[in-house]
């Protein structure tokens, strides 16, 4: 047998151009997104060696709108409609922490009934987001029933929010000082009826999706994020809870009336894709209990909106407040120089932190596990770009 | 449970839905029913009245041309412009009233919150499609028309599931 070197020599004599395969030739560079169905205005560049991913570089920024800069040109109330655009499915939570921060700056006392109503709206809205996220997770894994069901059942909650706030997705409901309007008559019964039906449906979701052996095989033990790594990477929300850390802003720094509500922080220990997909679902179930408690404990009447001057302004200062959104901790840092317009607004979103875990999790995975890993991170590209 | 059992359970759960009425409904033959006549605002109490936030309605007999709605919208969508009207009202000396561009409006309702004279409210009408951009600009006269929206579909939940009526 002639050796490989001899063959090269021979080919050179014959005038053939055969080069040795180098390391780079083995790897193929792929660009996933920005128009990948599901990746949603987000691209990550991966290098694959055969079926294995050996390199991953997330490339966000396709939908950067300059929300933070826009805040500096509007007064605190006018900021509400554009601040909810980054994540319209969770628009009550993204304006919630903004309202909390501005209230602290301006020094507004929020009526108790308003605190309950906005907590209720944000719980409903978090479920709307999670159902949408779950629907996309289903279609990512080729489970089209799991795409249809949550998309349909979302309507029950959207209907509630439409009755309460007046809009189906972009509610503009929280404003500094409370909520825009009181609950309409008969809302409590309507809410309980539809949320109880949803709880029954969750049982069926477990049958068809979470307990399905096919789904389990695709997600169990895939892309494990250990407890230590989760802390080091600074992930948040359902991702950190799936890695065995029961950290929830609603418990850790209770805002508004959450210290009066009795609920458990849902978490799992395994840290794999299954845990990351199951924890938001457990959160949704817990959220149904929170909604029932909120409706129960709510003061039956009273103010829902603190009276403000047309251009609310406070003394110069700064405030940082955060809430638990569908994707984790969502914080606003607002600096005021004493004028009605904020001097600086910085949004700290959960999506961006969770995205940072993507390169760590994807390297060493098979190509086929990429969608399951990517969407399990509970990442919303538009919110991360702000 | 064994994995075969889980498969059977999943199929059983799914196939139940073959006999359940579907959740979707036939728009535009059927339309959703709304609670109330649309979002309104009570400037005396400083709080809104729950309702759907569709296109606006302007009451010419109340609007004073104070421009507060236009100022509120300036930082949001710049959808409101003040235009001259051929009407003479005692309370509206300048004879100007808001005109709304629904190509820009985001239906936040903050202009309604700004109006101190109960002149600008919102209605249940969300069917605003037009062939050109210019047709989306509603003049004060168009805004005064009460919409003829009629919807009667509601979510019905019974023992077999949720449907739209
Ligand atoms: S609803 Fe909002 S965007 Fe539309 S005209 Fe009124 S303030 Fe402007
Ligand atoms: S609609 Fe109201 S706010 Fe706008 S100009 Fe008329 S009175 Fe003033």
Name the poorly predicted regions of chain A: none
* Helix/strand order of chain A: HHEEEHHHHHEEHHHHHHEEEHHHH
Count of the domains of chain A:
1
Instruction: Write down the CATH topology of chain A.
Output: Cytochrome-c3 Hydrogenase, chain B
- Biggest interface: A-B, 42 and 40 residues
What is the strand tally of chain B? 9
Task: Describe the protein in words.
The complex is a heterodimer of chains A (386) and B (165). With 386 residues, chain A is of the alpha+beta class. Chain A has one domain (67-385): Cytochrome-c3 Hydrogenase, chain B (Orthogonal Bundle). Chain A is 48% helix and 12% strand. Chain A has helices at 4-13, 23-26, 67-70, 79-83, 91-106, 112-140, 144-165, 187-210, 213-219, 227-233, 238-242, 249-252, 273-297, 350-355, 358-362, 370-376, 381-385; strands at residues 27-32, 43-49, 52-59, 174-175, 178-179, 317-325, 328-336, 344-348. In chain A, strands 1-2-3 form a 3-stranded antiparallel sheet. In chain A, strands 6-7-8 form a 3-stranded antiparallel sheet. The longest helix of chain A has 29 residues, at 112-140. The model of chain A has no long low-confidence stretch (mean pLDDT 85). The model of chain B has no long low-confidence stretch (mean pLDDT 84). Helices cover 18% and strands 20% of the residues of chain B. Chain B has 4 helices and 9 strands, in the order αβββαββαββαββ. A 3-stranded antiparallel sheet of chain B has the order 4-5-7. In chain B, a hairpin with a 2-residue loop joins strand 8 and strand 9 (161-164). Chain B is elongated. Chain B is α+β, with helices and mostly antiparallel strands. Chain B has helices spanning 3-15, 68-74, 110-114, 140-143; strands spanning 40-42, 47-49, 56-58, 80-84, 96-101, 120-122, 137-138, 155-158, 161-164. Chain B has a domain at 37-146: Alpha-Beta Plaits. Chain A binds chain B through residues 73-75, 77-82, 145, 152-153, 155-156, 159, 162-167, 170, 172, 180-184, 193-194, 197, 204, 207-208, 211-213, 303-305, 307, 310, and chain B through 1, 3, 6-7, 9-10, 12-14, 23-24, 34-36, 38-39, 46-53, 72, 74-77, 106-110, 113-114, 122, 155, 157, 162. The structure holds iron/sulfur cluster (SF4) (2 copies). The site of one iron/sulfur cluster has 14 residues of chain B, from helix 2 and helix 3. The site of one iron/sulfur cluster has 13 residues of chain B, from helix 2.
């Amino acid at each position: 047998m002639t050796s490989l070197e001899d063959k090269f020599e021979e080919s050179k004599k014959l005038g053939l151009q055969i080069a040795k395969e180098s390391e780079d030739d083995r790897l193929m560079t792929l660009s996933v997104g920005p128009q990948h169905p599901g990746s949603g205005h987000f691209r990550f560049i991966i290098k694959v060696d055969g079926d294995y991913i050996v390199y991953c570089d997330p490339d966000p920024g396709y939908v950067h709108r300059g929300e933070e800069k826009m805040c500096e040109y509007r007064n605190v109330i006018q900021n509400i409609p554009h601040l909810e655009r980054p994540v319209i499915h969770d628009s009550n939570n993204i304006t919630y922490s903004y309202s909390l921060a501005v209230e602290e700056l301006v020094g507004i006392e929020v009526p108790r009934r308003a605190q309950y109503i906005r907590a209720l709206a944000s719980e409903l809205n978090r479920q709307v987001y999670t159902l949408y996220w779950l629907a996309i997770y289903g279609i990512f894994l080729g489970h089209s029933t799991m795409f249809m069901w949550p998309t349909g059942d979302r309507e029950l909650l959207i209907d509630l929010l439409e009755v309460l706030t007046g809009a189906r997705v972009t509610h503009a409901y929280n404003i500094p000082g409370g909520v825009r309007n009181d609950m309409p008559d008969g809302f409590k019964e309507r809410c309980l009826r539809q949320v109880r039906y949803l709880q029954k449906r969750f049982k069926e979701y477990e049958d068809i999706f979470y307990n399905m052996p096919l789904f389990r095989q695709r997600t169990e033990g895939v892309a494990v994020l250990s407890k230590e790594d989760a802390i080091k990477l600074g992930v948040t929300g359902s991702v950190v809870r799936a890695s065995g850390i029961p950290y929830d802003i609603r418990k850790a720094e209770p805002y508004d009336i959450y210290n009066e509500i009795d609920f458990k922080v849902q978490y799992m220990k395994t840290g794999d894709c299954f845990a990351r997909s199951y924890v938001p679902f457990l959160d949704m179930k817990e959220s149904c209990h929170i909604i029932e408690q909120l409706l129960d404990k709510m003061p039956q009447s009273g103010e829902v909106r603190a009276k403000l001057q047309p251009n609310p302004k406070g003394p110069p200062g700064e405030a940082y407040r955060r809430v638990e959104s569908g994707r984790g901790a969502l914080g606003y840092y607002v600096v005021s120089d004493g004028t009605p317009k904020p001097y600086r607004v910085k949004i700290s979103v959960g999506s961006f932190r969770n995205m940072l875990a993507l390169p760590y999790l994807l390297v060493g995975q098979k190509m086929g596990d990429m969608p399951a890993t990517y969407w399990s991170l509970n990442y919303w590209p538009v919110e991360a770009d702000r | 449970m064994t994995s075969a059992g889980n498969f059977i359970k999943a199929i059983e759960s799914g196939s139940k839905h073959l006999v359940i009425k579907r959740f979707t409904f036939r728009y535009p033959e059927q339309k959703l029913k709304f609670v109330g006549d649309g979002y309104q605002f009570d400037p005396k109490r400083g709080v809104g009245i729950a309702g759907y936030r569709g296109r606006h309605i302007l009451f010419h007999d109340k609007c004073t041309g104070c421009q507060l709605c236009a100022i509120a919208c300036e930082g949001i969508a710049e959808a409101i412009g003040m235009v001259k009207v051929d009407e003479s009202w005692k309370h509206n000396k300048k004879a100007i009233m808001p005109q709304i561009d629904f190509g820009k409006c985001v239906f936040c309702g903050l202009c309604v919150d700004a109006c101190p004279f109960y002149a600008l409210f919102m209605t249940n009408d969300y069917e605003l499609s037009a062939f050109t951009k210019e047709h989306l600009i509603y003049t004060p006269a168009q805004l005064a028309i009460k919409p003829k929206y009629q919807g009667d579909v509601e979510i019905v939940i019974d023992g077999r599931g949720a449907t739209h009526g």
